[in-house]
Structure prediction request, 231 residues.
Amino acid sequence: MKIAVINFSGNVGKSTVARHLLAPRLKEADIIAVESINSDGSQEEAMRGKQFGELLEALALMDDAVVDIGASNVEDFVNLMKQYRGSHEDFDFYVVPTVSKTKQQRDTISTLEALAEIGIPAKKIRLIFNMVELDETPQRAFASLFEYHDSEKNFMLKPDAVIHVNDIFGKIKDSEQSIAAILNDPTNLKAQLKEATDPAEKLRIAQLIAIKRLAAGVTEELNSLFQTLFK
Ligand SMILES: Nc1ncnc2c1ncn2[C@@H]1O[C@H](COP(=O)(O)OP(=O)(O)O)[C@@H](O)[C@H]1O
Ligand SMILES: [Mg+2]
Prediction:
């Protein structure tokens, strides 16, 4: 399965979704970060046709892939997809994470419009409500997206496609560790905590225990979200 993670907005959770929701649940999925395609120090530069062509070639050699399209590249990506007529068919799904801030919801609607304009069928476009507060419902927090969906029906909206606000993402952002690795780490942290005498060490272990607990909770949420998204 090949999945593009896309949104004109930054900070909606594209990279988080690619790394922690999608890649671990596909067989041998590499994450291709389109942000890093311009890694010759010209981050702000537009994605060129040549690079897009290379991306399509790389995809052709893979069975599973997650392409994380950084916000600054989305516009070029969409334009190149129009130029390379039919290239949108190289992806099985377009996953669009969004958050409830007004600007991000507006950008998300622009993203959904752009995808529809390329000719991507509604059933291939899946929205994720990210960073939903525990006491909030998507219907309330994302009212303008529900309204847009009612009028256009040009994407799939599943009200339970939700990732709640969760501290684990911030805590493991700078580590290479996957959520599964944290969960499966056999270290007996509670025993270590009992034995530790140094307060700083005790604190460090307590923090690891917290992360492990969050990992267990979020794994359940992400498993069921993956089912919801692609069933
Ligand atoms: N559900 C969530 N709960 C808490 N923090 C989150 C959640 N999703 C993403 N984040 C955090 O929000 C920030 C932006 O997420 P990121 O995936 O980098 O967005 P993007 O790739 O769209 O710019 C990161 O610091 C990430 O750890
Ligand atoms: Mg990102």
About this structure: Residues 14-15, 70 surround magnesium ion (ligand 2) (CB under 6 Å). The chain is about 50% helix and 15% strand.
